[in-house]
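Dear Dr. L.,

I hope this message finds you well. Following up on our conversation about the binding site, I have prepared a predicted three-dimensional model of the protein together with S-adenosylmethionine. For your records, I am including the exact sequence and ligand specification that went into the calculation, followed by the C-alpha cells. Please feel free to forward this to your student if that is useful.
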Amino acid sequence: MKSSLEIPKHWTFRSRAVAKHFTRHVREQLPWYDLATNAVAHFGRHYIPRGGVVYDIGASTGNIGRVLQETLDQRQARFTAIEESREMAERYDGPPELVVADAVTFDYQPFDFTVCFLVLMFLPVDTRTAFLHRLESLTKPGGALLIVDKVQMPPGYVGTAFSRLTLQQKLAVGARPEDILRKELSLAGYQRPLDPGMMPERARTFFQVGEFVGWILTAPER
Ligand SMILES: C[S@@+](CC[C@H](N)C(=O)[O-])C[C@H]1O[C@@H](n2cnc3c(N)ncnc32)[C@H](O)[C@@H]1O
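The resulting structure of the complex is given below.
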C-alpha cells in the first residue's frame, strides 16, 4: 500500500508539500488521468493550426503542455500556461511560457485551443458562468475549448452509485482509505463540482468516468 501523503486540513495548491507530491498524488486519486490527458493531446492535434494560439488554464506541473508539446512544435504554435500557485509553478515542467496569474482575470488573446483540465471546480462558483462565456467568445472560428471537470451527481440512488465509483477506483489503484477520506474532507468549500447545466447545449462529451466529464466546445467555422 502506498505511503501517506501530506494532506492539508483545508486543501490548497499553495503549498510546497502538495506541489511536491502532485504528479504522483493525482494519478493515485484519478486512475483515468493519463487516459483523459491523452484525449486532450488527440484533440490538440485536430484543432491547433500552424501559428495557433494555445492556453493551458490551471497548468499545475505542466501535464497538458507536455502532451501537447509535439503538436505545438510541429505547428509552431504560441503556448501559454496559466497557474495561480507559485508553489505549483516552481515545479512546472512543461513548455514555455508559464504565467503565474489568476486565470479568471487574465487578459487572454483570441485563441485556437484552450484546455481547462480539472480547474473550473476550484474557481469561485459565482465566477464560473461568466468565465466560461468569456472563453467561448475568445475561441477563434474553427477553434476549440476543452474542459475536463467534476460534476454534481444526479439525485437518487444512481448519484450514490456514481460517487462510489470514484471511491472504488481510488481503492483499486492502491490509495490508502485514510488518505481518500482525509482528502475528501480537506476539499470541503474549495473543490465544488460543476453544475452540468452551465454547459451550453453544443458542448460535446468526449469522456466520462463517474463524476468526471470531458467536453469539447467548438466555435462555429464562420
Ligand atoms: C487539479 S489541478 C489541475 C491539473 C492540471 N491541469 C493537470 O493537467 O495536471 C488544479 C490547478 O488549478 C490551479 N488553479 C486554481 N484556481 C486557479 C485560478 N483562479 N487561476 C489559475 N490557476 C488556478 C491550482 O493552483 C492547481 O494547480
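In brief: Residues 1 and 80 are 37 Å apart (CA to CA).

With kind regards,
A. P.
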